[in-house]
Amino acid sequence: MSEIIIDKNAYLHNLTQISNKVGDKEKVIAVLKDNAYGHGASLMAKLASEFGIKWACVKSIKEAEEISLFFENIIVLSHIPTGDENPKFIYAINDISNLLNLKKGLKVHLAIDTMMHRNGLKLGDLQSAFEIAKKMDLKICGAYTHFRSSDEFSAEYFVQKENFEIAKARLRELFDKFNLPKGVFHSHNSAALERATDLGDELVRVGIAQFGYAQFNDSLNLKKVLSLWAHRVSKRVLAKGECVGYGGVFVASLDLDIATYDLGYGDGLLRYCGIGDLHLANGQKVLGKMSMDSFSTIDAGSKVCVFDDANVWAEFFRTISYDILVKLSKDIPRKII
């Protein structure tokens, strides 16, 4: 049966490297949305918690509940208010109207639009946000922004940093004005953390970096955490001139010992159409079109590593490592070693 192997030592190494740069593991927010980028949310939450991480971010209440036993503070980033929220969690305010529809008494973090123009409040909205929150008995306990180009060497990262500093100054005034405790701030994602030289008193939201993927020169010395393995369903000799798979795209130029393995696009892999050379971790190629539940390659024994670095497949499919990882089915068993 196919499986995903999680390297515990690699993960703890990455968290150590990140914490060392940040200065304190308690300043790290582990972003575990979308099944922890395909790694398995509950597995990674347990490891992060045991390491000493106190904060996590997820997409939805459902995701938050899955890891609720492991963290003191869980931020729900993409919640659409219903009025029936779980008060254990912290809710991101992506639009000022959210404040009018949340259950009373909740803790919230304000998303600040510093230039991405996707979600968040403008500087001019902040006074009104505090007034509405007071009226609706909501507790503003933090604020954050998201960089639109931190993974690119451009000035936009620095422009957004400055914009957020301006917003933070205004927020501090409002915390005082409304007699609220000092809130926490966070802005740096994985790529921004690599570029940062001074994080001040901010927390950091670390996503893909905790799993070993760097955007630049990997000054953090990260290690890949996940490897994907498939198990052999059958084997045979593919004679010279014979084809394998749908459409007969691959034709053997000599007799080959091949095998079919139990992973396909139904398990979340991007569908290989048989054109171009898509390599497995052992250097062999996928032969012919990928099926829904299987693929064929040169026989590598009872199991084969499909990839231990998602960048290999991301480069082939002209996408990013995130896209390869988050699509991995939750039904694939995950095992920590």
TrEMBL record:
Record's keyword annotation contains Nucleotidyltransferase: no
CDD domains: PLPDE_III_AR (cd00430)
Domain of life: Bacteria
GO biological process: D-alanine biosynthetic process; peptidoglycan biosynthetic process
Protein residues bound to substrate: 118, 292
Protein name as annotated: Alanine racemase
Modified residues (N6-(pyridoxal phosphate)lysine): 33
This enzyme's EC code(s): 5.1.1.-, 5.1.1.1
UniProt keyword annotations, A-Z: Isomerase, Pyridoxal phosphate
Gene symbol of the encoding locus: alr
Leading EC class: isomerase
Cofactor(s) needed: pyridoxal 5'-phosphate
Cellular component, GO, one term: cytosol
SMART domains recorded: Ala_racemase_C (SM01005)
Pfam annotation, one family: Ala_racemase_C
Residue stretches making up the Alanine racemase C-terminal domain: 225-337
Coiled coil: none
Family matches, as PROSITE patterns: ALANINE_RACEMASE
Organism of origin: Campylobacter hyointestinalis subsp. hyointestinalis
GO molecular function: alanine racemase activity; pyridoxal phosphate binding
Cross-referenced InterPro entries: Ala_racemase, Ala_racemase/Decarboxylase_C, Ala_racemase_C, Ala_racemase_N, Ala_racemase_pyridoxalP-BS, PLP-binding_barrel
